[in-house]
Prior knowledge:
The protein is α/β, with parallel strands linked by helices. It has helices at residues 17-23, 39-48, 63-75, 92-98, 111-126, 151-164, 181-185, 193-198, 205-210, 236-249, 263-271, 283-298, 321-328, 341-348, 352-355, 360-379, 388-398; strands at 5-11, 30-37, 53-58, 81-86, 103-107, 130-131, 134-135, 138-143, 169-173, 213-214, 220-222, 252-256, 274-280, 306-311, 334-336.
Amino acid sequence: MTERIQTLVAVDAGVDRHELQSALPDDSGIDIIGIVEGLDESWQTLQEISPSIVVVACAGYSDRALYFIDSAVKQDRQRPVVVLTVGSPNGFVRRVFESGADDIVTLPELPDRVAFTLMKVLARRQGAAIASGVALGAMVCVLGPKGGTGKTLIATNLAAALASQGEHAVVVDLDLQFGDVGLALGLRPDKTIYDLARSGGSLDAEKLAAYLVEHSSGAKALLAPTRPDQAGAVGVDFLRDVFAHLRTMADFVIVDTPPGFTPEVIAAIDTSSHVCMIGMLDSLSLKNTKLGLETLDLMGYDQSRIAIVLNRADSRVGITHEDVDAIIGRAPSIFVPSDRQIPISINDGEPIVLAEERTDAARSFRALAEYYIAQRGETESSPEPETADAKSRRRFAWR
Length: 399
Ligand SMILES: Nc1ncnc2c1ncn2[C@@H]1O[C@H](COP(=O)(O)OP(=O)(O)OP(=O)(O)O)[C@@H](O)[C@H]1O
Ligand SMILES: [Mg+2]
């Protein structure tokens, strides 16, 4: 059975009940367990029941609503709050987010869009969620705070390794200015994330699928813009939407990132179910890996969902694996050796995991794929194993 989203709607004074009612989802995996008039009354109700999400409806700027959001967030930081408002007067949207709300929807809006927002914020909070009968695929955000650590190498080989094990994998190139996933996979950038962002209109799985480029392994890619000046067209809210949709389509969404914690990278981390942190055997890179792990800790990212991959792990540079454990505070899960076939495979646009199957490097990428396949089962937020039905719905969206 699929977990449904238990939703309490707290209604501030002045809200047009008819308009509110016509925006509320009546199915789509959402159960409205209460619509309470008045925020004091809603607060009382909130003490008595435990919804998985709180919706606050208000008619424009409302200090009462801001106070309510703030209190609801402080009461339970894991439970998302979404605001439905008629119009969004100056400064209100910012205050809503400052109060700790997860999202804001301006009415009138279609019930499906509201339902989608609710699912999205819940997925963002939980890392992985079951919603509307579709079990979300895992999303692995590949990070390496320092440039050139092997993020693109690892993201592309992981996607190819997953695809060759029968998983539907899509790799997103979030290095919006200088992305080279297309080069590493030998794909022509006939369509990119820039074209998708510029296409206008709302996003859905079918439309998104049309902008993915397929690799011979079966993995698909959402490629970076072809020119750095196009990166500005790809906004953070749009990206959150893209990630949320991709997770309903693919078994694995692998995100290759630029160095550093840019707003786009933070959005990807937020939406992800797992982080793959890449370090290299040099003290500068390891220092940055440690800083990256500390940043994830500050963001409240669950440490058990972070894997460390040590790249160029066999380099003889005077740093032992024990030193690595001591510097970054934990042991890497996977070691990728240096291999001169790696730059060759990147130049050829053919991931080494497929091109040179017998190398230790290829073995390490297969091990990484197996690691995530095993992890998915262990950390899915659903208490139940994934159903064949949920998987088949993703497969439908994939085609
Ligand atoms: N294990 C390895 N053995 C040999 N060469 C490697 C290895 N790992 C990475 N390289 C080489 O290092 C270079 C940088 O790798 P890659 O592009 O994957 O790093 P990146 O972290 O994505 O860089 P950027 O931060 O610039 O996006 C590539 O040319 C790649 O061929
Ligand atoms: Mg890169």
